[in-house]
């Protein structure tokens, strides 16, 4: 029992609160409960995991303890689609700070959470550098080093070329986020929406992800035609779950969809398709009559017509 009481905090402080702040190959992978050594999951393995998951399992993409919200991680994942451009961005800027590993963390933070103000970025960097315990720490603070890293970060916020890249990356990343949200709301398990995550939510580790939520704005948008894509997707999918509870409590059946598309049915009554790469051009639903509930170039949610 004492061993069990000791190992979780040792793991948390040693891995999540130290190693995850030192190892920056792709910080989207450095998530609580995650494995930074696993870069991706094939569609076949994704289906296998869904088939094996107990129906009462919690499905979360962002929590109070997340290192980066799901929307930030989606943008960072989008970097993989254009590695040559990202390499050029990094090589032109990484020499601006004397510790390349820290510079690489700062670059990923800026483009992943864009746009963010200097205060939020500086507070994050202070925590990240101290958690890493290499150049500074909570116990032995090196304020001169921290100030230099913050100046480098502030320069990146004023970098117009980097801003243009971040905006283009955001478009791709936000598309990935919508696909992730649809999958979370439709695969076996109990989907969880962390406070604030109903709208695009590009936050960093606490306390950044625990900032006050504008609930009045969400109440106004959820019942209007002005709801942004993410909130509209959530509203539409949850409404379908309410109309078809038996389907979402029923079977999960993978659908052959060709390369780059993840598709499945729930209870034989609901069809979901997400373009992991490319779009849904050429995707053919299973036999039967289906009525679109939601359809975009990259997403499909449909119910069997009665």
Taken from the alpha-carbon principal axes, the silhouette is globular
Oligomer: single chain
Biggest sheet strand line-up: 3-4-5-7-6
Gap between N and C termini, in Å?
Answer: 56 Å
| pLDDT < 50 runs, ≥5 residues | none
Helical proportion? Answer: 40-55%
Q: Please indicate the percent range of residues in DSSP E strands (runs of 2 or more).
A: 5-15%
Average pLDDT number: 95
**Class from secondary-structure proportions:** alpha+beta
- Helix and strand succession? HHEHHHHHHEHHHEEEEE
How many domains in all?
2
User: How many H/I helices?
Assistant: 11
Topology:
Blueprint: H1 2-16, H2 43-52, E1 58-59, H3 70-78, H4 83-91, H5 100-112, H6 118-132, H7 143-157, H8 160-186, E2 190-191, H9 215-222, H10 229-243, H11 245-248, E3 252-254, E4 261-266, E5 270-275, E6 290-295, E7 299-304
Parallel strand pairs: 1-2
Antiparallel strand pairs: 3-4, 4-5, 5-7, 6-7
Task: Describe what this molecule looks like in 3D.
It is a single chain. By secondary structure, the protein is an alpha+beta fold. It folds into 2 domains: 11-243, no CATH class; 246-306, Immunoglobulin-like (Sandwich), CATH 2.60.40. Helix content is 46%, strand content 10%. It is built from 11 helices and 7 strands. The chain has helices at residues 2-16, 43-52, 70-78, 83-91, 100-112, 118-132, 143-157, 160-186, 215-222, 229-243, 245-248, and strands spanning 58-59, 190-191, 252-254, 261-266, 270-275, 290-295, 299-304. The strands form 2 sheets. It has a 5-stranded antiparallel β-sheet, with helices on one face. Helix 3 (70-78) packs across helix 8 (160-186). The longest helix is centred in the middle third of the chain and has 27 residues, at 160-186. The protein is globular and about 70 Å long.
């Amino acid at each position: 029992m004492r061993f069990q009481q000791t190992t979780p905090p040792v793991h948390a402080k040693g891995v999540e609160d130290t190693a995850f702040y030192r190892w920056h190959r792709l910080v989207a992978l450095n998530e609580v409960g995650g494995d930074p050594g696993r870069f991706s999951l094939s569609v076949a393995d994704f289906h296998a995991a869904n088939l094996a998951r107990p129906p009462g399992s919690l499905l979360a993409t962002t929590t109070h303890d997340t290192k980066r919200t799901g929307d930030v991680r989606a943008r960072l994942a989008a970097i993989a689609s254009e590695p040559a451009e990202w390499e050029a961005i990094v090589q032109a800027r990484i020499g601006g700070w004397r510790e390349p590993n820290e510079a690489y963390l700062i670059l990923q933070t800026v483009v992943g959470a864009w746009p963010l103000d200097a205060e939020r970025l500086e507070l994050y960097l202070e925590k990240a550098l101290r958690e890493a315990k290499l150049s500074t720490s909570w116990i032995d603070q090196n304020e001169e080093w921290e100030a230099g890293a913050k100046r480098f970060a502030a320069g990146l916020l004023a970098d117009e070329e980097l801003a243009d890249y971040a905006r283009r990356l955001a478009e791709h990343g936000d598309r990935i986020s919508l696909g992730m949200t649809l999958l979370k709301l439709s695969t076996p398990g109990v989907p969880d929406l962390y406070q604030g995550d109903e709208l695009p939510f590009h936050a960093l580790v606490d306390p950044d992800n625990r900032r006050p939520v504008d609930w009045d704005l969400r109440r106004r948008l959820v019942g209007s035609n002005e709801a942004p894509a993410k909130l509209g997707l959530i509203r539409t999918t949850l409404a379908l779950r309410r109309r078809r509870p038996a389907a979402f409590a029923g079977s999960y059946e993978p659908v052959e969809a060709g390369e780059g598309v993840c598709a499945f049915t729930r209870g034989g009554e609901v069809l979901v398709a997400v373009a992991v790469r490319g779009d849904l051009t050429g995707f053919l639903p299973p036999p039967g009559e289906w009525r679109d509930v939601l359809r975009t170039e990259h997403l499909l949610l449909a119910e069997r017509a009665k």
